[in-house]
Amino acid sequence: MKKFALFAAASALVLAASGCSAATEAHPEEMHADNGWVRAYEMTAMPGGMTGAFAEITNHTNADVTLVGASSSIANMVEVHEVVSVDGEMKMRPKEGGIVIPAGETVTLEPGGLHIMLMDTTAAILEGDEITLTLDFDGAEDLTVTWPAKSAAAGDEEYQSK
Fold first, then answer.
1. Signal peptide location in the record (predicted)?
2. What does the alpha-carbon distance between residue 133 and residue 54 come to, in Å, rounded to a whole number?
């Protein structure tokens, strides 16, 4: 009986301590992604395609945080990209150094601008699918999100790497 009481007391202390630790180690709402979605279109109707992911990412910390990449089981390669004008033509390319989200601000990832690129998809991405990505931040904890796949309302951008 004494051993059981000692075990119960020790277990309660461990649980209480781990609960407190988890609360102080967790960083709730450091980074938040709202209105996220992945574009579904003819190039995502079969494996091997590529597409973009878009959202509003808010930094709730007191320091700048950089979105340096992402990962997803739906794509063999995931990068942060930007669309820039080169000789009057809009071109997509990897965003050198990542996408900085200033402290206390929101950055919008959108078609024709900053976005997350999913390349060499491992399965079809169809409208209505739920796509899970893990956003990789420098300066904050990674953030796992699940966004719907939907067709773009406008802006039929070309997804070519160069």
1. 1-22
2. 11
